[in-house]
Amino acid sequence: MRYFLPAFLLLCCACSKKDQPAPDPVPTGPVTQQEINQWILDSMRTFYLWNDRLPATADAAAATAPYFSSLLNTADPFSQIYNPGNWATYPRFMLSNYGMDFSVIPWTGAPDGAIGVVRFVIPGSNAAKAGFVRGSYFTRINNVAVNSSNIASLTTKILRDATGIFTPAAVNGSTVTEAAPVTVPLGIAATEEAIYAQKIINRNNKKIAYLFYNSFNDAVNNKLIAAFQDFKNQGAAELILDLRYNTGGSLAAAAILSALIAPQVTGETSFVQYTGNSTQGTRKLSFTGTMNYPETGSIIPFSSLQPARLALPRVYILTTHATISAAELVINNLKVYTEVIQIGQTTYGKDKGSITIKDGRGRITWIMQPIAYRLANAGGAGGYDGGITPRYSVDELDSLPLAEIGDEKDALIAKAVSLITGNTRTVPEQVTSQKVYYSSAARVRDIILPH
């Protein structure tokens, strides 16, 4: 998912009315490739973060998607363009198209020395219907044994094709027993929930709230607030926020979550700073200013959060390399207001946001989402493109089989609970991590900033 900034801010701040040039006349007749490519180039000149490296003229003959890609800076793997009327132009990911994410790791006894470990499955998805759950193993894709060299290409192929054939396996130490292959069709995965687990952990007379939050989705903002209200009603004094597979989403939802946690902030407190190209400059948004631009649904006023706010002096946040985008922004932005105790692995490292650009004349159907801003917290701290490093290093793949989401035996949760209760001797600090050949979860859903 992506963070997007409100368009009116960009347009209103760009120039005064007297400086605005007369608009170009709207073309008539069929849309040409030259018109599409000129629209792309003009938009990128205005909003793209690296607009100083764009060509002087548009290529009139190049196909739309390749032309857009040709404009991207080498430091930009995130910008994208798609046609809502053509599903084939949408980016494809294992989670959104098959309903699961996995990692492939070395494994003695596997057919080619490696095995797939399913880390997350969307309930009701094609992968779930095929029998996969968190902690499942597989040894082959399309009847080819997975290894360090072929797993990326095998995954790319099943994302391009209509189906993927997986060979499930049972593991008992170094003994790997393969089952009959199962076919998983590609499609649009069942709707992903944002909240997969919420509960109170009672330990040593402490009430610890636990929340597994997997997507910054405005459609569930009220459920998020209700979860915190329940935590508060039950007297929670500590919070474990599980963002290990959260790949981003709405900036408004990120502001709501942060406000529910952080003490001594108001609606007018600065939440995020974003810096664009020489035309767009640097701007700050308050909590209220950010919450006023949800991607979907109605605006939630800051005052409505007050009854549910925990206002904690610290928060324990669980992360992996699949903690991306808006999830990283929350970690970085909360550090201004409260102590963040990060447990797990270094995050992905995406400190930039996009905007959504559509043709306001209605002639061109393509939609662009170019990177437009570098992101920072209210104190101006950003620059985490190498990821955010945890205070305590823990790799869940060092504790197989994987525990269910929310299970207190999970390695990351167990570490957080031990720190809260002071019983750290039961959970030693890790000095090494499981070698991973490939992870399908290291995908990026961008922050789409309001513009």
Automatic annotation (TrEMBL):
Signal sequence interval, chain numbering: none
Pfam families given in the database record: Pept_S41_N (PF18294), Peptidase_S41 (PF03572)
Record-level GO BP terms: proteolysis; signal transduction
GO CC entries: outer membrane-bounded periplasmic space
InterPro entries linked: ClpP/crotonase-like_dom_sf, PDZ_sf, Pept_S41_N, Tail-specific_protease
Gene Ontology MF annotations: endopeptidase activity; serine-type peptidase activity
SUPFAM superfamilies: ClpP/crotonase (SSF52096), PDZ domain-like (SSF50156)
PANTHER family in the record: CARBOXY-TERMINAL PROCESSING PROTEASE CTPA, TAIL-SPECIFIC PROTEASE
Protein's name in the database: Uncharacterized protein
Organism this protein belongs to: Chitinophaga solisilvae
